[in-house]
Each structure stands twice: as structure tokens, then as C-alpha cells.
Amino acid sequence: MVGNAASAERLQLEPLSVTSPALRDGGALPSDYSCKGSAGNPPLRWSRVPDAARSVAIVADNNNARTGAEVHWVVFDIDHRTNELAEGTIPVGAVEGSTTNGKVGYTPPCRFQENYRFTVYALKEKVDLGKGAPLSETLKSIADKTIAWGRLTATHIE
Length: 158
What we know:
Family: Belongs to the UPF0098 family.
Shape: globular
Mean pLDDT: 91
Distance between the termini: 41 Å
Helix content: 10-25%
Protein name: YbhB/YbcL family Raf kinase inhibitor-like protein
InterPro entries: PEBP (IPR008914), PEBP-like_sf (IPR036610), YbhB_YbcL/LppC-like (IPR005247)
CATH architecture: Alpha-Beta Complex
Number of strands: 11
Organism: Planobispora takensis
């Protein structure tokens, strides 16, 4: 889709509910999940995945107005029936793509005064790329297949 049609479709996407037992939306990201900690990714839970979804993806990033977004983690091809992710793990069968710095897996954030977003996407089909797939390819595929999304935002690191 192009132009206004794509914008109109994005506005009609169904919302997912995203929560975490370790952080609350608008609160701090516990330092255990930052470069000062060793816990890896925070636990996440989501609900209201549409019946049409065939897979789920997660993107963790920060949105810096000066330097642009930096992606800290990309996980895709999560089974659409899965509704949570434990601390420091990925679900069986899920695939991790490359991050902004080219690494595969969760790259803990270090900028203590920035917002960090954990966005869960319901997709109409699998991303179907390999482990370590280039970030640009992965993000484009997720965007093209998204039918619903939700986000949990941490406003800074503790």
C-alpha cells in the first residue's frame, strides 16, 4: 500500500495489551535489564491477539529525537498462541534478528535518561527470516505483516 491507504490501514490496527511483572508502562526500566544488570530481557505478557494472527514479533528500542531509534532486540516467528515471555529467554521456535549494533539477541540499553519501548506485534504470517537476519529486512517484514500491536514504555533506567 502507498500513501493515505497505508496510513488509514495503520490507524485501524487492533490494539494489543502489553504488560510485565517487572515494570509498568510509564515507569522505570529496572537496572537488571540494562547494561548494569545481568538478567537479559524483561518478562513480557500480551493479550488480545486477533484470531487472524499467525505469529508474534517483539521489538525493543529507544526513540531518541536527536539520533533516531536504536533497536536493542528483535524476536520474531513466536507462535501466535504464546502470550508471554520469561525473563532472559525467548520462546521455543522463535528467532532473534540483528539489532542496531549488528549483534543477535537482547542488547541491554545503557542511556539512563531515555525512553525504552517494548512493542509486541501480531502478524498475519511468519516473518520467515533466519537468525541474525539484517535489521532493515526484519523490520520491513514485521511492518508489512502487522495486524495489531501494543507497547510498554519505560521512561528511564533505574
